[in-house]
Amino acid sequence: MKEGKSQKTVSSRRETYQSELECPNCKAVCMVTWEEHENPVYARAGFGRRLVSLPESFRKAPDDNAIICAACDLEISRWA
Question: CB–CB of 51/34 below 8 Å?
């Protein structure tokens, strides 16, 4: 960067939140914690979401962005 030019600071925003999920089959309920972030450098892509915590009664699919009820083996949620 040339001297005399101002450097613009680019920062990302992160937000952590919880959501309640319910298995439609066995009615088991869990609280899931998500982290969502917006990176202004990649603004066209929008928000990125990451699963932070999930109770043992549910699991994340190993090769997919899906949450599965451990008791029923039923997919109850999917995210991008």
Answer: yes
Q: Which residue has the tokens 């043992």?
A: 56
HSE of 47, CA atoms in CB hemisphere, 13 A: 11
- Tens of pLDDT along 21-44? 999 999 999 999 988 877 666 556
Sheet holding 47-53, edge to edge: 13-22, 29-38, 47-53
Phi, psi of 49 (to 5 degrees): -120, 140
Task: Give the start-to-end residue ranges of the domains of the chain.
Answer: 13-78
Q: Under a CB-based contact definition with an 8 Å cutoff, are residues 69 and 23 in contact?
A: yes
